[in-house]
Structure to design on (536 residues):
């Protein structure tokens, strides 16, 4: 369905704008993704927006035509509006902007098939949405099964996280869980829990990674709680040759993930 | 020297605030770093602020006392001000905030001693200050000689980059150069130029890294220009098993840097 929106006070405009805030995303169970490239990534991953918002006078583009056709065929809405109204929705002064509203998804631990991938990423109390999106992007690159978010993490459906994920938010499974639930689920089946740590640890290059391997990184300032480290099957250490004793969380996760991939890729 | 500032319109307050903008940083050749931890990292790396700003009623702290003593001994200024004024300077509503003004430094290619480290990081047109700061932090961790910024990069002295560097902005050499100057300098001595690339490339795990190894990453959206890739001694490829064909720039640099480190660390 096509619809043209003409006023700032239109309830749909208010709804779209409200999705920039976590509180409203959680209430509505919906999130915004912006940009033709990101929306095309979503479409090609089998995820279509329920609503598509763009400027009335936006230039045509074959990828946009394809998106409009698919959204319409799936019963979604295509909303056209003045550039000024679109700017209010996207927060960007870009008349070529396109935004889509998607239903949130949380796979839930119980629906994860741990045998489907050798690597899984786990983030604990990760607070920066850019780091979270970057971990999703890395997970896509290493063929991870998904990202499990432990305790109080940034919202994977925030505009910043979605943008940093470069589309991986649509391809990676995402499950959110408390630590107790996660560790209970993990121990009910196969799975090696691995964390970078400074104590009792093995060189990350020669460590005995085993599939399915769950690579866990902690909060940006505090790292992992000691009891979470204790619960790991393997603690690995990376060289830290300078003054600092830690890497950026998303970087640490990626260095570990690529190392584990090199060990596990050709193994069953 | 201690000084108490009482008005918002004080020229020093205006000066401090102005350093949040690149234009003023370049004019003044000064930058701001915030937080007691970061300022302590600077002090322990032998870099002292010329000015130190804090709230009049800030709680005492041994690390702050040490900083004040060193700044004073070095002839710097310690500025105390109302919390409201400090908030204007730091942009943060935190009465415990401390900010320091540092002289910018650009080592200049001609002053880099390429034999001092096996790994150097090179960023080309990197636009995100968080990515830039993260690369500095990674450089510190892998014992890199420094970060060379090619073409139009984000400002390494922006508040965001300084914060993301976690102190590495004070320990890593930073040189800014145009491509032509960089490649001329590089070819005038030893040095292997390496980039991640999708064409004519070698598996990054088995590639013949050689010291001093210059690891180059490109712009966040466009990657490296083809002619820059052509000029590399080695093009390496990392597995990309998902939908996307690239990693976050700072992540790609870190995965490469840790790989090269594993190859070069125990070699002369």
């Amino acid at each position: 369905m096509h619809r043209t929106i003409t006023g700032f006070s239109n309830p749909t405009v208010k709804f779209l704008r409200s999705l920039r805030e976590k509180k409203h995303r959680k209430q509505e169970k919906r999130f915004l993704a912006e940009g033709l490239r990101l929306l095309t990534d979503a479409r090609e991953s089998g995820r279509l927006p329920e609503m598509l918002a763009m400027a009335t006078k936006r230039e045509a583009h074959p990828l946009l035509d394809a998106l409009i056709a698919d959204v319409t065929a799936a019963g979604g809405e295509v909303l056209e509006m003045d550039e000024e109204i679109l700017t209010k929705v996207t927060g960007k002064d870009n008349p070529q902007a396109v935004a889509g509203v998607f239903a949130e998804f949380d796979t839930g631990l119980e629906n994860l098939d741990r045998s489907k991938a050798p690597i899984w990423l786990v983030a604990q109390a990760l607070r920066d949405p850019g780091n979270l999106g970057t971990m999703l992007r890395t997970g896509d690159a290493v063929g991870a099964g998904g990202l499990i978010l432990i305790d109080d993490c940034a919202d994977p459906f925030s505009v910043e996280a979605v943008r940093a994920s470069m589309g991986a938010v649509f391809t990676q499974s995402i499950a959110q869980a408390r630590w107790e639930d996660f560790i209970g689920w993990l121990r009910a089946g196969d799975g090696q829990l691995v964390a970078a740590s400074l104590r009792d640890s093995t060189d990350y290059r020669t460590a005995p990674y085993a599939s399915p391997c769950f690579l866990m990184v902690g909060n940006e300032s505090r790292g992992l709680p000691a009891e979470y480290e204790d619960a790991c099957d393997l603690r690995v250490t990376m060289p830290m040759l300078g003054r600092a004793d830690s890497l950026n969380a998303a970087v640490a996760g990626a260095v570990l993930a690529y190392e584990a991939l090199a060990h596990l890729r050709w193994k069953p």
Notes: The longest helix of chain A spans residues 249-264. Chain A has two domains: 2-103, 109-264. The radius of gyration of chain A is 20 Å.
